[in-house]
Amino acid sequence: MKNCNIYICLFFLSLIFPFQAQNLKEGHWYGDFKLQEKHQLFFHFSVDGMQNMTIHNDKENVEMQSFEKVNDSIRVYFSSFPNYLIFKINKDNPHKIKGFFVNPARKSNGRVAFIAEYFGKEVENLPNNQSTHKNIAGKWQTTFNAETNNAYPAIGIFKQNEDLIRGTFLTETGDYRFLSGRIIDNQLRLSSFDGSHVFLFKATLKNDTLKGEFLSGNHWKTNWIAARNDDFKLKSPDSLTYMVKDDFEFNFKTLENKDYIFPNKELKNKVVIVQILGTWCSNCLDETRFYKELYDEYHSEGLEIIGVAYEYPKTFEGKIKRVKQFSNQKDIVYPILIGGNASKAESSADFHMFNSISSFPTSVFLNKNGEVVKIHTGFNGPGTGEIYEEYKKKTKALIEKLLKE
């Protein structure tokens, strides 16, 4: 009888403390993703005493949700995206783990293998002034998919400290967020892992030209070429999407499955931003964080923001669940409606008064009379530094001007 009680106690303890026997060691871990063609992408995360995991993506800290036991593995979801890491701790060496980064929305190649090892203390990423390296700091006119019908322009902006490189690429539909890496001799490597993307940029510098490859996870690869050009500019993000019909109107479902018709009397004499987004989109996440700032600052003065989300879950209920998770996690209080599937073609059909929706996010700014005054395609976020700060400043100035009219 006593033995039975002991077993029962042990059983209930295993339910209360499911990770007691397989906790990740507290401190810093370093790992490598296994990309296509045997390429590797370095990443870094830390675990605190409460088993909370944080991905360190250059200057960005990507917080994870709580651990979840799945058979003999551990799964941990990203707080901003429906993606997750799933891994096993090495039974013979608890300083090592092995697993996958999983994007469940991707039907094929949605798993990227990784290994990681425990280092305890953070390994300082110090510049090496003894190594041979070229100077690439500055602005680079860039073409991705070069010499193809699908070529598209970008601007590479890099800062350099000895052999350490930080920066990003701006495109006409958004930026590639926080990138960091090194240049050794004439070989450049930049990477990013933010819970949505696994990006690796490789290039060789020759005769003032960078030429290389851009890999995304284990499913996509293209070429890129860049040359210094301080005067190069992309098309204005305010010019890519424009009205082809006079009336701006729509009807989407709320998270309570009720019709939301725009325009409506509740928005009379209000300044309105309509944000066309996807909760799976990193640029949309950056924009939403900024719009939360705008809403908190200007809502009492008459600003309204309405999101319209295009999502990967196929069912309406799945879309609602994902948007609710996103709103709750990011403390978003302005309404986000359900647009449809994660498709630019579908969103373009819904917003047929425009020439097209070429990017998530796309934002429509309306004055108090319900007139469209600006349509902004894409979003260049905090990874772009001064460009991001300048955009925030100009947008706040526009909102203040419209509120005073």
UniProtKB/TrEMBL annotation:
Which organism was this protein described from?
Answer: Brumimicrobium salinarum
Q: May I ask which residue range the UniProt record assigns to the signal sequence?
A: 1-21
Q: Which domain of life is it from?
A: Bacteria
Q: Which keywords fit this entry according to its UniProt record?
A: Signal
**Keyword Transmembrane tagged:** no
Which is an annotated GO molecular function term of this record?
A: oxidoreductase activity
**Which intervals of the chain form a coiled coil?**
none
Name of the protein in its database record: TlpA family protein disulfide reductase
